């Protein structure tokens, strides 16, 4: 099908974009990569009267690494984030996860910020933002504000971003030295939305785990981080007790998630799957150098 | 809507030629190519990004033309399947068509049956081989995982990717050889 008619706005600056959004309010939608929005328009699941196309806005495609965070601008495409060597060196998790987002042709156009603004429970990047204790930077004609991930995701496909606000960037927080990460998901075909997925960070000091957290794809309504410190901290990563600790972590994850059943998989299957994936990413994160495995 | 939709003059470079048409904002790039520019080589299957039949190269990178508006393609360079045969490494066959290495490989390996999905595979693989000129068979499979084909069962498309890599290398060696003797 084809989209319903709309008025196309092509602002050149963030200020212009904010002004248009203020004017069109709830009748408007931001168009970034369009890889989620255009299917919705084509199927006429939505028919906003105005589209604010930000693809021509100057200065939004940056990927900047600081000591604290990797800041990704609203026009940085998934493919650019996956390719960025600086971002990979600072936070390997970003590439590990982004390579699981859709297929290359979708990643060439879709944006990381758009996928966070879309807040699909099956999206990888909302889960990664949560695991990295990330922040969304929003701009409107009323001013600028920062929204921590806990306050950002309000429900499936729902955020606390207001209709007149543009997310100009997100910041993924970097982990302490000695932290390794890994990300894995299971999909019917590589690149499809995952049946279940999990990302972990594990901080190890002198061979002993000091902190560990996990975050999930497709098995929770909104991004949700589980602290695995209580089951893993104090364990020597190469010792015999590591295996048992990993089993307890997988059990904790199975208890934590609330998967739903749909035509692709039952709730029980997803729960089993995410437990097994947790086991694998934990083992991978402490064995592979810097969890350097996709 | 009662009023007539506003039209936008959209100018893009398609296969090296600047083309302009006046279209409504909601015109998908796929329909712009097919209906307004009469380039019907780009096929439309699902219109939600899943099948890959509509894949074109935007500034060299494969993208879904069904998920882009023509107005957003303003001033960009588009390559469609019609443009592949005029690549520098295309060669004229005995039957008179000019085929790029990927097209030649599809013909040799029976990489197509009905041909509906083929334009999307050809553009996707053309861009992929520029990034990875020597794929393994596993990588070839991965490279086409975003495109659907209802006919071939994919085996011959995987073979076509590998064969296209060979042909590309052969033609490059040939061109370099010519360069030396000339
Ligand atoms: C076939 C297919 C498979 C896919 N598979 C996956 C997958 O496996 N995993 C995955 O995570 N995603 C997947 N996607 C979606 C893809 O990752 C999208 O790129 C992403 O969800 C949205 O980013 P976008 O830039 O395309 O946003 P758009 O589609 O332009 O926008 C999406 C929504 O976010 C809003 N929005 C976007 N940017 C901003 C902003 N800066 N400020 C305020 N609001 C904004 C829009 O108004 C809209 O409501 C898939 C898409 C397709 C077509
Ligand atoms: S028609 Fe565009 S992906 Fe199917
Ligand atoms: S050849 Fe018929 S769909 Fe691929």
Automatic annotation (TrEMBL), chain A:
- Pfam hit, one: CO_deh_flav_C
Q: Which residues form the FAD-binding PCMH-type domain?
A: 1-177
Keywords associated with the record: FAD, Flavoprotein, Oxidoreductase
Q: Which InterPro entries match?
A: CO_DH_flav_C, CO_DH_flav_C_dom_sf, Diverse_Substr_Oxidored, FAD-bd_PCMH, FAD-bd_PCMH-like_sf, FAD-bd_PCMH_sub1, FAD-bd_PCMH_sub2, Mopterin_DH_FAD-bd
Residues annotated as coiled-coil are none
Extract one GO molecular function annotation from the record. FAD binding
This protein is called what? Carbon-monoxide dehydrogenase medium subunit
TrEMBL record, chain B:
Does Metal-binding count among this protein's keywords?
yes
Q: Which Pfam families match?
A: Fer2, Fer2_2
Pathway(s) per entry: Alkaloid degradation; nicotine degradation
Q: Where is the signal peptide?
A: none
Keywords, A to Z, come to: 2Fe-2S, Iron, Iron-sulfur, Metal-binding, Oxidoreductase
What are the recorded GO MF terms, alphabetically? 2 iron, 2 sulfur cluster binding; metal ion binding; oxidoreductase activity
InterPro entries registered for this protein in UniProt: 2Fe-2S-bd (IPR002888), 2Fe-2S-bd_dom_sf (IPR036884), 2Fe-2S_ferredoxin-like_sf (IPR036010), 2Fe-2S_ferredoxin-type (IPR001041), 2Fe2S_fd_BS (IPR006058), Beta-grasp_dom_sf (IPR012675), Diverse_Oxidoreductases (IPR051452)
What highest taxon heads this organism's lineage?
Answer: Bacteria
Which stretches make up the 2Fe-2S ferredoxin-type domain?
A: 8-84
* Entries under PANTHER family matching the protein: OXIDOREDUCTASE WITH IRON-SULFUR SUBUNIT
The protein depicted here goes by the name: Carbon-monoxide dehydrogenase small subunit
């Amino acid at each position: 099908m084809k989209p319903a008619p709309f008025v196309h706005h092509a602002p050149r600056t963030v200020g212009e974009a904010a002004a248009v959004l203020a004017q069109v309010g709830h009748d408007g939608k931001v168009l970034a990569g369009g890889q989620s929005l255009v299917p919705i328009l084509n199927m006429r699941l939505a028919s906003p009267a105005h589209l604010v196309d930000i693809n021509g806005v100057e200065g939004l495609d940056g990927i900047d690494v600081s000591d604290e965070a990797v800041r990704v601008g609203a026009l940085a495409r998934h493919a650019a984030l996956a390719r960025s060597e600086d971002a990979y060196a600072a936070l390997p998790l970003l590439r590990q996860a982004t390579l699981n987002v859709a297929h290359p042709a979708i990643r060439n156009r879709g944006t990381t910020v758009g996928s966070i603004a879309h807040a699909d429970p099956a999206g990888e990047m909302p889960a990664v933002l949560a695991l990295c204790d990330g922040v969304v930077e929003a701009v409107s004609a009323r001013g600028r504000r920062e929204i921590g991930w806990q306050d950002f995701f309000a429900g499936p496909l729902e955020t606390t971003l207001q209709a007149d606000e543009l997310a100009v960037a997100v910041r993924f927080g970097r982990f302490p030295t000695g932290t390794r990460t890994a990300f894995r998901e299971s999909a019917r075909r590589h690149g499809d939305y995952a049946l279940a997925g999990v990302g972990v960070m594990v901080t190890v000091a002198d061979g002993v785990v000091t902190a560990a957290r996990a975050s999930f794809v497709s098995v929770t309504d909104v991004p949700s981080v589980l602290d695995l410190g209580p089951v893993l901290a104090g364990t020597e990563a190469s010792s015999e007790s590591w295996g048992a600790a990993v089993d307890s972590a997988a059990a904790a994850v199975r208890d934590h998630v609330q998967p739903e059943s749909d035509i692709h998989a039952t709730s029980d299957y997803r729960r089993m799957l995410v437990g097994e994936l947790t086991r694998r990413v934990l083992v991978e994160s402490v064995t592979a150098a810097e969890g350097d495995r996709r | 809507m009662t009023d007539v939709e506003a039209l936008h003059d959209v100018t893009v470079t398609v296969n090296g030629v600047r083309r302009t048409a006046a279209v409504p904002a909601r015109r998908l790039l796929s329909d712009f190519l097919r209906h307004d520019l009469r380039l019907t080589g780009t096929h439309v299957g699902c219109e939600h990004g899943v099948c890959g039949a509509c894949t074109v190269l935007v500034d060299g990178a494969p993208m879904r033309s069904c998920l882009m508006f023509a107005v957003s393609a303003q001033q960009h360079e588009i390559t469609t399947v019609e443009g592949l045969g005029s690549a520098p490494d295309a060669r004229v066959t005995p039957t008179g068509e000019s085929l790029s290495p990927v097209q030649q490989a599809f013909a040799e390996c029976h990489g197509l049956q009905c041909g509906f999905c083929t334009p999307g595979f050809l553009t996707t693989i053309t861009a992929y081989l520029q990034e990875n000129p020597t794929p393994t068979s596993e990588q070839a499979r991965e490279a086409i995982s975003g495109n659907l084909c209802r006919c071939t069962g994919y085996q011959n498309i995987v073979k076509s990717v590998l064969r296209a890599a060979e042909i590309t290398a052969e033609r490059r060696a040939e061109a370099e050889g010519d360069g030396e003797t000339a």
